[in-house]
Write the structure tokens for this entry.
Amino acid sequence: MENLNNSAELCGVMGGAPRFSHTSRGADFFTFPLTARRLSGAGDTVNVILPERLLGEIRPAEGGRVRVLGEVRSFNNRSGVGSRLVISVFARALLPGEGEDLNRVVLRGTLCKPPNLRRTPMGREICDLMLAVNRPCGKSDYLPCIAWGHAAETASCWRVGTSAGIDGRLQSRVYVKQTELGETEKTAYEVSVGSFFGI
């Protein structure tokens, strides 16, 4: 069932062959990393989850180009291993990766935490948002978003419960976290806001 509140389109290079992820309701699901380059040349590497039936439509291989149509999903990891909030793209279609790299996400949801406005060391304003995006099945995905500059100022005035549309991209960001064992490199996933709509 198509989710009108949540759509993602990615086109890029596979960072590995699809590997088994899990079984749900009698169906097997697989996962692979996909890297889509920005105009700057930097790459965002996103984890894609897809049902096994999509693997029969094309023969994806490591280093090959694919196009993914689907939606951004969140999963609350309670295993104690890895990130607590796991962000991925659930594929509804897997196609040959023709054309330039692409990373576009369109969301419609509700602000479910107070916005957090901050500044970079260079003085640029950033606003962290958490958007609850409803699925047709009655569940919701909780998706971290980040707005910059004027968009950050706008979002910082919102209250919990504000409805908003976001057009942006799903970005990956590597950071270093201090733990009891020393420094550990982590990857954060968030939707970088290009523009707001429907406010």
Q: What stands out?
A: The domain at 6-101 is CATH 2.40.50.140 (OB fold (Dihydrolipoamide Acetyltransferase, E2P)).
